[in-house]
Amino acid sequence: MSRVVYVNGSYRPYHNAAVHVEDRGFQFADGVYEVIAIIDGRLVDEEGHLVRLERNLDELRIDHPMSRAALRVVFAETIRRNRVRHGSLYVQITRGAARREFPFPEAIRPTLVAIARSLDWAKVAANAAKGVAAITAPDLRWARCDIKSVGLLPAALAKQAAKEAGAYEAWLVDEAGLVTEGSSSNAWIVTRDGVLVTRQLDRAILSGITRSAILALAEAEGLRVEQRGFTPEEVFAAREAFVSSTTSFVMPITSLDGRPIGNGAPGLLAGKLRLLYEAYAGSQAAGALPSAPYLAP
Ligand code: PLP
User: Fold this and answer.
1) What is the model's pTM?
2) Mutation to probe ligand 1, out of 55, 186, 207 (largest number of atoms < 8 A from CB)
3) Where in the sequence numbering do the catalytic residues fall?
4) What are the pLDDT digits (tens) for 135-148?
5) How many C-beta atoms lie closer than 10 Å to residue 19's C-beta?
6) Ligand 1: which residue has its CA nearest to atom 5?
């Protein structure tokens, strides 16, 4: 079956779907994006992702290309036409195409692209069963990491460094020596006392939709949670570590910069949260549960 991509009002064959050469996403990274998990053909936490997407557009003063209800129709149709049962939906909105000038052009229409692709969740689960490695890297990003902008070069450089070190993720460390988040995930540790720690929301990190679902699950389980920054030294002293994201769910981190975390195996709490999250995501996608809220920084 040939794949199709939604681009500005039509569904085009994947190999010739295109946007204008003077699109501001291409020239200025003037755009935002979302990645939403697809389970059994349904989107997980669609509402939370839509709220975050609209909030990010508003922060950058990019016009909404269409209503929330219309976006839902485009998303569902893109998934349907590609017959994706398990996978992810990538959505990108840029300010649009115009002759290259730094200030916002007047009266241009935003560009909207939606791409659905299959993903093998069993492979992700197999990775989670083994645990994965992370490295630290300096956080070289801008001062508005709360906006899910397509300006991803520092994240791509950090992820490449992780790949070259045989690691899954790079944990970004700010100038104060604190881990902010992963290059494409939120970062968590479990202390020796069993406290779940993840960085507080502000402009230095993305408010992950998975993060907010895990916080709700942790609260329902009566777990102790602290939202604060932590240092790499605290990671080495921690019992467990993991990352959360739309495409990783809960992924145990078993080493940082080549040093084992805890006993060097996936942690018990990470395993439990992963199971809880999988059950949540499955029933959430089926519409049985409300979407995890987008938590504004
Ligand atoms: N932090 C960053 C920098 C990300 O790019 C992502 C996801 O891509 C996340 C956190 C996790 O967010 P979510 O759980 O909404 O996928």
Assistant:
1) 0.98
2) 186
3) 148
4) 999 999 999 999 99
5) 17
6) 184
